[in-house]
Amino acid sequence: MRNIRGRDIAMVFQEPMTSLNPVLTIGMQLTETLLQHLDITEEAAYARAEELLGLVGISDAKRRLAQYPHNLSGGMRQRVMIAMALSCEPKLIIADEPTTALDVTIQAQILELMKDLTRRLGVALIIITHNLGVVARYANRVNVMYAGRIIERGNAIEIYHNPKHPYTLGLLRSVPRLDQPRGERLIPINGQPPDLTRLDDGCAFRPRCSFATERCAKEKPLLEDLGGGHLSACWEKDKVGLNAGKHVSAAEMETGAPEHQLGEVLLKVSGLKSISRLPRGS
Amino acid sequence: MDGISFEVRKGETLGLVGESGCGKSTTGRCILQLDPPTDGTIVYDGMDLAKVSRAEMNKLRERIQVIFQDPFSSLNPRMKIGDIIAEPMHVHGIEPDAAKRRARVAELLTVCGLNPRFADRYPHEMSGGQRQRVGIARALSMRPEFIICDEAVSALDVSIQAQVINLLEDLREQFNLTYLFIAHDLSVVRHLCHRVAVMYLGKIVELAESDELFDNPMHPYTQALLSAVPVPDPEVEAKRVHQVVKGEVPSPINPPSGCVFHTRCPKAVASCQTDVPALRELRPGHWVACTEA
Hints:
The structure holds 2 protein chains of 2 kinds. Helices cover 32% and strands 14% of the residues of chain A. By secondary structure, chain A is α/β, with parallel strands linked by helices. Chain A is globular. Chain A starts with 8 loop residues before the first strand and ends in a 9-residue tail after the last strand. Chain B has helices at residues 24-31, 54-63, 81-91, 98-111, 128-140, 158-175, 186-192, 210-215, 220-228, 234-239; strands spanning 2-9, 13-17, 39-44, 47-48, 64-67, 146-150, 178-183, 195-200, 203-209, 280-283, 286-288. Chain B has an 8-stranded mixed beta sheet, with helices on both faces. In chain B, strands 3-4 form a two-stranded antiparallel sheet. The longest helix of chain B has 18 residues, at 158-175. At the A-B interface, helix 5, helix 6, helix 7, helix 8 and strand 8 of A face strand 1, helix 1, strand 3, helix 6 and helix 7 of B.
């Protein structure tokens, strides 16, 4: 396993702030995997590390190798993590929420970098995320998980345009979208995610599901093929569709942000300045 | 934060968006006088907050409330939910009668979609979404007219986030509230806000009505931000042109000269390095701080 880990399968973790060792230089952390798995000298490993940093878009690589994680920004640290993952030319990279802790413009940079590198180097990528937009932009195939199980699987376009599990459907409806007219009320998934220590024999999504029947309480649905590699674990999957089951009254569909009438000025801020002290997390 | 100016009108929701370190939270804290600003004025309902007396400020704090981002650290773990919600009433001497206070807590919990029995629970017994509802109930206990929501839904799961967004919308209508909605998630801001101000490195770079800003962004930074947000639809995404801005946000301690965005801007010209662009009204109600827009 130790031979596979890092060489064939590499991992990029969520928190670039805590997943690098703060007391070791970037160079030491990058060369560690190389020296472990490949039969090369330290000098060659450092040369390769420099090359890797260039590959992930870090300029001035030689100087960076001598620096410590605290000298780098969040985006840069995530680039270092990706360089580490790529170092032994793995066949598979698992990226666990690789951009969740980053700002959107940096998130876009990192995701473009990962897409570009994986395509160019022929590496398979498993991306673990809660962001439906990131999945839509980058994934070919999607597995949707709920309460420890995969409940729907298929290619990305199928999943987004023809969801066959009520949870997937609920997720898609509950996020506001930049490409759609504003004002329609969001349709949330009611209730809370279940307590994973108290799951029963039925479907775990049942208490929050508008399609649930008695059967859902007794038998746990298994993944069944709907054709074309699209699988869903739901007894009522034939009824689920983007247009089905919109149990929303007309009153609830009214605009989210009503046309606003200009009231009197309540708050007026002018020329506000504040001298930056220590940076505060936004 | 450098020279922030805006107005919030009664009944409207103004969005304040930007990436970490752009000063959006600091703006909120300045308005609350939690971090008094170094310069500039904040006038609330005709009163200059820098000049009001302590007693007047205390009175104002009843009218201006805040909902914080982190529902895990903004509730005291050793207090019961009921006591957390009742505390502001106690502090401000609004409801001296304990029985009435309890009734009011039950009412607030119900308004926020929680079971009144939760008053006897502790924060650790509740989920993130439920805690955020408690934070909202606490803010409402003062019957405020203006609420600053500082990343109020950012820490929540998608399915729960939609519940809280809907709750904030309902409360706005029910109690005629005005919100300053500080967030980094553009889709959420677009959904909730009437007008939106985009901040970058301590400055407002663009300000417009929500539809106008999102349909017709004029500042290169706003354009880059919008392009960076992935849309949850693979077909739409495949057709979109992704304009990725280079570089990282410079340090706010030592911001670039001229236009603060010029180091990353695809449209920058030589003068951007020296001249600070003023916020100009390029269309009715649409303000942009860019000479090339």
